[in-house]
Request: fold
Amino acid sequence: NAGVTQTPKFQVLKTGQSMTLQCAQDMNHEYMSWYRQDPGMGLRLIHYSVGAGITDQGEVPNGYNVSRSTTEDFPLRLLSAAPSQTSVYFCASSLPDEKLFFGSGTQLSVL
Amino acid sequence: GENVEQHPSTLSVQEGDSAVIKCTYSDSASNYFPWYKQELGKRPQLIIDIRSNVGEKKDQRIAVTLNKTAKHFSLHITETQPEDSAVYFCAASTGSTLGRLYFGRGTQLTVWP
Reply:
């Protein structure tokens, strides 16, 4: 099993550009989520999903969209990138009532 | 929503000493409390977790205690080693949706040889 796979590992965007961060898991986990990590702020939940076709907002959802068309994939879309979205992004997955498995992260810089 | 406070933000100890990191949470419905270790440039890794029906859990040099009445939980690392140096995060989960974790801001632990 590859676990949770995130792409790309690094990305630089210009303000206003759009992009999609990819996340895939091969563990048949129902729950998937996106977090952002900023220095001194811990990890903050952006969006999460409890199954295909079901998504909900976390603590900091503004500026991000998600969809969950399959159990395996949970992409995060930035519609119009802003410098405030410069961060490290982690995707995670789990079974119900089980621990989170994190991907290796995407370091995003918005200029 | 849930609010998790973590202290201290930095902690320096001598090798062999113990380290304690404390967290408080606000939502009495929270029932799952994991601790993650994150080394520089790496992903967070679960090191220990505890559920609300248990007061203490140990795994070799690591232990977690939970006081539901006071809404706080702590991580205890004994006989610290330089490889324990990392950022540690506590987290809390409300209800059965464990994919929705609320994290503390982290503690940078440095263990000096």
